[in-house]
Design goal:
alpha/beta, P-loop_NTPase, AAA+_ATPase
Amino acid sequence: MEFRSAADIAARLGETGYLCDDALATVTYLALGMRRPLLLEGEPGTGKTALAEAIAQTMALPLIRLQCYEGIDATQALYDWDFARQILHLRALEASGGVDAEQAEKSLYDERFLLARPVLAALREAPAVLLVDEIDRADDEFEAFLLEVLSTYQVTIPEFGTVSAAVPPIVLLTSNRTRELHDALKRRCLYHWIDHPGLEREIEIVRSRAPEVSAELNRQVVTVVQALRDVDLQKPPGVAETLDWARALHMLGVARLDLESSARTVGALVKYREDAEKVRHALDRILTS
């Protein structure tokens, strides 16, 4: 699917329920058109992962997700061999008799026994959308490996050979900025910082994603969440938490936000006990002022 302009991609993403501003639509349009990876940084819950999901849905492409974590290495991102099936294969060969040891060893590294992990799967299944989520959790070595893959869109498996993407996958990387990424990786990508949406845009997002929530409750919820983001919390509520809270209140039949209903549903907003205490105090101030 080709996009005619940034406005066109914004409109098509909007059809999936993902609403983006002009700056994000423009950098997404450029990344797709220039076939460059897009690096998205921002606070958790600002819609970085959701953008990859929306692009995949809009373009009717498979979304392949690589969740990064401390200690992840290239093997976990690339491939593995199905040892259990390889052993069964060897036993079957032995049972049939007359096994040539060299041929038997070669047959162990057949396509049938190759388990493709996310990066290899994205290269083989392209066109596809590859989401490298929270790259800032991985270490420098993994970042260097990823940089190499994104430069060539091919990987070499010693026992198998080189696998190249017929069409480079669409690559989105997200970072919550728990550490600074290397300049080399940033230079390979187009970059965009995603902030929490403003009041009116967040109201629009809730209206789009949770149309069952009344307009009055929607505005109240978003107004309070925006105020809570100024409170010193370990993890301020993101858009996903706003949607959860609005849906939770609607599910309980709450038509207008008050202290009692807010206190009962604070678990939809924050996930730390210390944050919950701060939010309860803040709600008392926000809703009674």
